[in-house]
Specification:
This protein is of the alpha/beta class. It has a single domain (33-136, 150-249), classed as CoaB-like (Rossmann fold, 3-Layer(aba) Sandwich), CATH 3.40.50. The chain has helices spanning 19-32, 65-76, 105-116, 158-165, 182-192, 234-249, and strands at 2-5, 11-15, 40-45, 50-51, 57-58, 80-85, 98-101, 121-124, 131-133, 152-154, 171-178, 197-202, 214-215, 218-221, 226-228, 232-233. Strands 7-6-3-8-11-12-14-15 form an eight-stranded mixed beta sheet, with helices on both faces. Strands 1-2 form a two-stranded antiparallel ribbon. Strands 4-5 form a two-stranded antiparallel ribbon. α2 (65-76) crosses α6.
Length: 250
């Protein structure tokens, strides 16, 4: 949908796109064809929820929109797509895509490691919590006048494990959502975790990052290449990411 004045009198997302834009999208889809036919693509999306008690949790602001856009783009290119969604996701399951709903980092890890074994491409767009409460209270913690101290323990690094297990022909893509030193942190992560590509974005930028319809990213390659994109819809960012992945397969 396009953005602008709506029939209800308001303004926002929901307008019918211009016919020329619809035709262009159709032409681009036809031109791309089923370039990933016969290949399994595993995508993760959203944030994880780490339980404090039966009511409360530690989480983050990830909506899963970027990961869902990537999964849908891969499916349009003919891939067999498996989408592992975290607990923060409140999006409808995309048609034609097998979706595995998980809540915690440990549950996501189990699903991802099982599905990654035979995947040609793994795209880790999820914002997995780095830490979880060491102990989960069995009952709701009641409020009192004292301070509440939580002891946190580190979650397993799913992307690091995938990098260690990566087959020679497998393509592994990570994401880096940062608030400072974007390029340095992303390049370090790419090298440390044995990635082929990393998609980096500064979540403090307007209209980019968590819970937005647009994103402002840099795609960094193992070869040191950096492709800097303008502010685009997450669907168009997903297309560029898949184009970069396909270029590695040639």
């Amino acid at each position: 949908p396009a953005t602008g004045h709506l029939a209800c009198g308001g303004s926002g997302v929901g307008r019918l796109p211009e016919p020329a834009d619809i035709v262009r999208e159709m032409e681009e889809t036809q031109a791309r064809g089923k370039t990933l036919a016969g290949k399994k693509v595993l995508v993760t999306a959203g944030g994880t929820l780490e339980a404090i008690d039966p009511v409360r949790f530690i989480g983050n602001r990830s909506s899963g929109k970027m990961g869902y856009a990537v999964a849908q783009e891969a499916a349009q290119r003919g891939a067999e797509v498996v989408l592992v969604a975290g607990g923060t996701v409140a999006l409808a399951d995309p048609p034609g895509i097998r979706v595995l709903h998980t809540e915690s980092a440990l549950a996501m890890r189990e699903a991802v490691l099982q599905e990654a074994a035979d995947a040609a491409v793994v795209i880790k767009a999820a914002a997995v919590a780095d830490y979880r409460p060491k102990e989960r209270a069995k009952q709701k913690i009641k409020k009192n006048d004292a301070e509440l101290t939580l002891v946190l323990e580190k979650n397993p690094d799913i992307l690091m494990e995938l990098g260690a297990r990566k087959r020679e022909t497998q393509i592994l893509v990570g994401f880096a959502a940062e608030t400072q030193n974007l390029l340095a942190y992303a390049q370090e992560k790419l090298k440390k975790k044995n990635l082929d590509l990393i998609v980096a974005n500064d979540v403090t930028c307007p209209d980019a990052g968590f819970n937005t319809e647009t994103n402002l990213v840099k795609i960094i390659g193992r070869d040191g290449s950096i492709k800097e994109l303008p502010l685009l819809s997450k669907q168009k960012v997903a297309k560029t990411i898949l184009d970069a992945i396909e270029s590695l397969q040639k």
